[in-house]
């Protein structure tokens, strides 16, 4: 999918969109407390050889990344919903017809009678 950066210019952290989507789903079921999650992530990354020296800055960067990614997901969902709503065919009018339409007459004159 790609990476989402914590800042538009010179970001110090970029997070995979799949991880952010996972967290969005996770926080539906858990209290959305980013601090323990970022502490765990930072320990894991340090063990893998990726060092981010300032813990508070790491949490701030990750929180910013998560926040703006959620905003992007919501805007995307709104845009898609609006596009789907705009392209729907409006329901046909509910007028009561005394006679079948000309189309039905033409398709099946035995069922709907011959049009005169």
Task: Based on the model shown, name its key terms.
two-stranded antiparallel sheet, 2 strands, mainly alpha, single chain, 60% helix, 116 residues, 5 helices
Task: List the SSEs and their pairings.
Blueprint: E1 3-5, E2 14-16, H1 17-29, H2 34-47, H3 55-87, H4 102-107, H5 109-112
Antiparallel strand pairs: 1-2
Helix pairs in contact: 1-3, 2-3
Protein architecture, described:
Helix content is 60%, strand content 5%. By secondary structure, it is mostly helical. It has a two-stranded antiparallel ribbon. The longest helix is centred in the middle third of the chain and has 33 residues. The protein starts with a strand and ends with a helix.
Largest sheet strand order? 1-2
Measured as a percent range, the helix fraction is: 55-70%
Largest sheet: 2 strands, antiparallel
Q: How big is the Rg?
A: 28 Å
Would you kindly provide a brief summary of this structure?
The chain is built from 5 helices and 2 strands.
């Amino acid at each position: 999918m790609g990476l989402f950066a914590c800042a538009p210019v010179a970001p110090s952290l970029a997070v995979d969109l799949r991880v952010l989507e996972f967290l969005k789903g996770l926080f539906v079921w858990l209290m959305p407390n980013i601090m323990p999650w970022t502490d765990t992530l930072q320990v894991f990354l340090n063990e893998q050889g990726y060092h981010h020296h300032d813990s508070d800055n790491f949490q701030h960067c990750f929180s910013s990344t998560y926040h703006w990614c959620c905003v992007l997901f919501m805007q995307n969902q709104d845009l898609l919903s609006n596009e789907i709503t705009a392209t729907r065919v409006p329901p046909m009018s509910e007028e009561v017809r005394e006679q079948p339409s000309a189309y039905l007459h033409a398709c099946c004159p035995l069922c709907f009678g011959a049009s005169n």
